[in-house]
Amino acid sequence: MVKDKIVLDLVSPLDLYGPDNQYINLIKSHFLNLKIIPRGTEIFLEGKQVQVDEFKQSMDLILAYLHQNQSISKNDIERLMEKDLKFDRLSDNIVFFGKNGIKIKPKNINQNKLVELSFKKELLFVLGPAGTGKTYISIALAVKALKEKKIKKIILTRPAVEAGENLGFLPGDLYDKLSPYMQPLYDSLNDMLSKEKLNYYMTNNYIEIVPLAFMRGRTLDKAFVILDEAQNTTINQMKMFLTRMGASSRFIVCGDTSQIDLPKNQESGLIHASRVLQSINSIGFINFDEKDIIRHELVQSIIKAYKK
């Protein structure tokens, strides 16, 4: 048996321990054979050397995460403790400074992985439930690339399943017809760019928001293209989209396979592509789950309940 301690010199004990000690109790639940006594800025340990070492390794990762992000949640702790200790550190990946100087940066480990992998792979498939920030971070990466003039334009697209991609009967111009289906993409852009800058980019076609049907026949060179709600593509639509990829372009495909709105007898193009393209090394795949949800904590519970 050995005794040791950890000194909290870079983070506030209140932030680490959580409300009513919820966070530290969650951490302790992973080390039931180790005596752990938190007292102010010190955490005292007593147990076998291997257990103490494992605890200190885990705490080192948690403290680095908390110090970097200035906050932590139960979901973050679960993710760090259970699955992602292979990530030695979350790198300080500020994507860019958005509107009013707000830092746009990853808020969980898989968002961080998405940022890291986007620099290495020109085509990414990002799968996971609503509320994990997969589309938001993807759009942030696209805006960063446009600002740094690494690409000529951003194209954001969705399959307009609710309208059957048959928008002609709706009143108004193309913007009016698409707004109900594309609004989440506009919302993300409005978070990142001033009204004037966004209007300039869209008026001059540096940013396009179009339904997937409008992509047919195009070759997209030096563009950052994001397909959202990709679970609602057919196999042919997905193939059509992926083969639009031109020179110096980057594609990100986002979707949630638990929210497919296609007819029951039709396979999702996202599921099919994830299966048949999995073996291609130059394509990256990232899988988010409910532990990555950054919306209200109830969303995680709701998604778990619907899985049962």
List strands and helices in order, with pairings.
Blueprint (H helix, E strand, L loop, with lengths): L1 E6 L5 H5 L4 H7 L6 E5 L2 E6 L1 H21 L4 H9 L13 E2 L5 E2 L4 H10 L4 E5 L6 H14 L5 E6 L15 H19 L2 H9 L3 E5 L11 E5 L7 H8 L7 E6 L13 H8 L6 E5 L9 H11 L1
Parallel strand pairs: 6-10, 6-11, 7-8, 7-9, 9-10
Antiparallel strand pairs: 1-3, 2-3, 4-5
Main features:
308 residues; alpha/beta; Ribosomal Protein S8, Chain: A, domain 1; Rossmann fold; six-stranded parallel sheet; three-stranded antiparallel sheet
Overview of this structure, please?
39% of the residues lie in helices and 17% in strands. It has helices at 13-17, 22-28, 49-69, 74-82, 109-118, 134-147, 174-192, 195-203, 235-242, 269-276, 297-307, and strands at 2-7, 35-39, 42-47, 96-97, 103-104, 123-127, 153-158, 207-211, 223-227, 250-255, 283-287. The strands form 3 sheets. A 6-stranded parallel beta sheet has the order 8-7-9-10-6-11. Strands 1-3-2 form a 3-stranded antiparallel beta sheet, covered by helices on one side. A two-stranded antiparallel sheet has the order 4-5. Mean pLDDT is 86; it is low at 85-90.
The major β-sheet equals: 6 strands, parallel
Mean pLDDT: 86
If strands are numbered along the chain, what order do they take across the biggest sheet?
8-7-9-10-6-11
Q: What number of structural domains do the residues give?
A: 2
CATH architecture of the largest domain: 3-Layer(aba) Sandwich
Strand content: 15-25%
Q: Measure the end-to-end span.
A: 43 Å
Poorly predicted segments: 85-90
Query: At the fourth CATH level, what is the homologous superfamily of the largest domain?
Result: P-loop containing nucleotide triphosphate hydrolases
Structural category: alpha/beta
Question: Mind telling me the C-alpha Rg?
Answer: 22 Å
Number of helices: 11
Q: Helix coverage percent of residues?
A: 25-40%
- For this structure, the CATH topology of the largest domain is Rossmann fold
Based on Cα principal axes, name the global outline.
elongated
